[in-house]
Design goal:
234 residues; mainly alpha; Four Helix Bundle (Hemerythrin (Met), subunit A); 10 helices
């Protein structure tokens, strides 16, 4: 970034992922800020990376409680804000761990729990927002397409080297990074802000776009895996 000094630029290169290996929202927004927070926390040795991850998990759980108890536009906006704060903390905990070279198996488990909770909370908050805005049917369509994509991606990761190589190549070109973001709960969750603050059509269009990208991505992975299996059997 223009305001980064040489120390910050060097730190970015050593502890942050390149664009093709990063999530789009993290790279374009949150990583611009997180490096400064991580640099400060890294010298506060009484705060461990696992403590930061635990705070993120607690924030995610709080977001679901806030959304469930009130289920109003205001509470949903607060809940979305809490999920994004938890997402930001998830980036910070990894950066602090890499700066200190402080890693543990328990930290890996906490990160996996946080990732699953983020996806669950995003889908849940989106369900409540869809109910408020009258978009329940679109939410069902989006949820089915998203979970289908996740299932196909997990299957292809372990069964098709061709599909995995194709994903890597697309990410290098930037298209895969953007497509991955559009097909994620985070994209639709951010779009829910526009739906709640401005017009429900913004959330409806986001869910339709995400659904389309999920389906196209799933079909592409299945095609690549089918070609790979056919080549091996032949």
């Amino acid at each position: 970034m223009p305001w980064d000094n040489e120390d910050i630029r060097s730190l970015r290169q050593s502890i942050q992922k390149p664009f093709e290996g990063e999530e789009f929202l993290a790279w374009i927004l949150y990583r611009r800020i997180s490096i400064y927070v991580s640099r400060i926390l890294a010298v506060w040795y009484f705060i461990t990376p696992n403590m930061i991850t635990t705070l993120a998990i607690a924030t995610i759980l709080l977001s679901m409680v806030v959304a469930f108890i009130w289920s109003s536009k205001i509470s949903l906006l607060v809940a979305i804000g809490l999920t994004q704060f938890a997402y930001f903390l998830d980036l910070v905990d990894g950066e602090v761990a890499r700066i200190r070279k402080q890693f543990s198996q328990f930290g890996v488990i906490l990160d996996a729990v946080l990732a699953d909770l983020y996806a669950i909370s995003a889908a849940y908050i989106l369900l409540l927002a869809s109910n408020v805005l009258g978009l329940q049917e679109l939410w069902v369509l989006w949820a089915l397409s998203y979970h289908f994509r996740v299932a196909v991606a997990k299957w292809a990761r372990f069964s098709s080297s061709r599909a995995n190589e194709g994903v890597v190549q697309m990410r290098k070109g930037g298209f895969g990074v953007l497509a991955s973001f559009v097909s994620s709960p985070g994209f639709v969750l951010i779009s829910a802000l526009g739906g709640l603050l401005l017009h429900p059509l913004l959330l409806a269009l986001a869910m339709l776009l995400s659904t389309l990208v999920c389906l196209i991505g799933s079909l592409w992975l299945l095609r690549e895996a089918y070609i790979d299996v056919g080549a091996r059997s032949g």
